[in-house]
Input
Amino acid sequence: MQELKPVRVSAMLLVILLLAHNTNSADIPVLIGPYLGQKPPGTVPVVFAAGIVSASRPEFNAAFSPDGKEFYFSVYEQSGRETMLFMRYVDNRWTAPASVPFVSPHSDCDPIFSPDGKTLYFISTRPKKDTSSQDWDIWYVERTDSGWSEPKNLGPPINSESDEYYVSLTNEGTIYFASNRKGGLGSFDIYKSGSLNGTYEKPENLGASINTTYLEHDPFISPDESYLIFTSVDRPGGFGTGDLYISFHQNDGSWTKAKNLGNGFNTKAYDFCPIVSPDGKYFFFTRGGDIFWVSSNALKSFSPKSLP
Output
């Protein structure tokens, strides 16, 4: 870990004593059906796939493909390296967690699918081809007839000489992410960038309704761009080191002042990595070293309109 990694270091300190390991097919039961065959949660968050996904290693981030047949998540290894595992629904059962085919010796994490499922974004410290720099950048792989392509760096203006974390995309292709680039309001801020003719525009800081002098990261933007859920660290009035907040996009393009999701979601532990499943049914997030899920109905009280 480099020194300028406050988000990853903060979360890591909460779970570093846990041991990392890969799970083989002999370690898990036969898993059949949607969401790894797990019993759907109610409106109180519960651990997701205990002993299978949320196991003896620290895990974070949960990304299902739009068709629900692939599941990607991240784990901390005992060495401090972060890497990604995946599971697939094949022959009417889920495969055991395995390393992604584009794994690197560097840290890779925070996978997220594009709305059409043809691209998988993630962040990595792997060096770019033209430099030995190993800051966190956003990378992606594209689906081909034979599997995933070789990883590609998303490049400027999204990536910078600073760190970029946790991608989320709207149905229209607007990308949201966190960065500690110069000119922000705090140590990390949340940015957005629209796509024009296949090229990303200059990232826009979301402003003081979202960002503060504290640390904001891990944005999840709803597919229709109507609301944003993210983590803020050490913000006054919170429940723990990292808490989940929500803000709503208004007709004039501004954002409502972010509201803490409360003690139904936030605890003394580090709560981060928010994401809603592609079908809109479930809200996933990470608490400490485990992945949790809850019915998305639990979020509806925070908005006058139904959430997807």
Summary: Residues 1-6, 8-26 have pLDDT under 50 and may be disordered. The radius of gyration is 18 Å.
